[in-house]
Design brief:
Strand content: under 5%
Strand order of the largest sheet: 1-2
Largest sheet: 2 strands, antiparallel
Radius of gyration: 19 Å
Mean pLDDT: 86
Number of strands: 2
Distance between the termini: 29 Å
Number of helices: 8
Helix content: 40-55%
């Protein structure tokens, strides 16, 4: 895989093993063009490992929308690799995506009620960024506690548009 800092070798043997499970496939060119997470992480890996003589091989996996059941299926498939001492999993998320473009603007929560019972003239307004920060920190605390079930409930209850919630759930299911 080419990066601005050089090339990273794909571990084709592991990629082939994963494809044989019939649960992994090549990402379409169209999806690849709009996906940006690998482009963010691969140069960082190049930089981190620049002084290492033997460069690590990568197995790039991009996770889309999954059900709870398929998250567990992927966790079971990836668990043997996760258990290997010489394997590093990088799971990332930029958490909440706020705004009309993401259909996520729970303003009623910002007003501290159900949206209809608060007198907007006297209600204290919470800035959007503070609400998002509190929302994301609540989810992050569950990740830190390694509580897969609580994180799943949190996602369902808050409808937080966490980009990366499915890879996070896969990771939590492997712990």
């Amino acid at each position: 895989m080419d990066t601005p800092l050089g090339e990273l070798e794909v571990d084709q043997e592991v990629v082939d093993e994963l494809r044989r499970t019939k649960r992994f496939s090549q990402m379409s060119r169209r999806n690849d063009e709009v996906e940006h997470s690998l482009e963010m992480h691969l140069p960082m890996l190049q930089h981190v490992f620049k002084s290492v003589e033997i460069k690590p091989k990568v197995i790039p996996i991009v996770v889309g929308g999954l059900t709870r059941e398929t998250e567990r299926e992927y966790a079971a498939i990836l668990a043997p690799y996760f258990a290997q001492a010489d394997t590093l999993f990088i799971v990332s998320s930029d958490f909440c995506h706020w705004g009309d473009d993401f259909d996520f603007t729970p303003y009623e929560n910002l007003r501290g009620g159900d949206g209809g019972s608060v007198d907007e003239e006297s209600a204290e307004w919470t800035p959007v960024w503070e609400f998002i920060q509190a929302l994301d920190m609540a989810g992050l605390e569950l990740v830190e506690k390694q509580d897969a079930e609580a994180f799943h409930r949190y996602c369902e209850e808050t409808d937080n548009t966490i980009c990366g919630r499915h890879p996070i759930s896969i990771l939590l299911a492997m712990l």
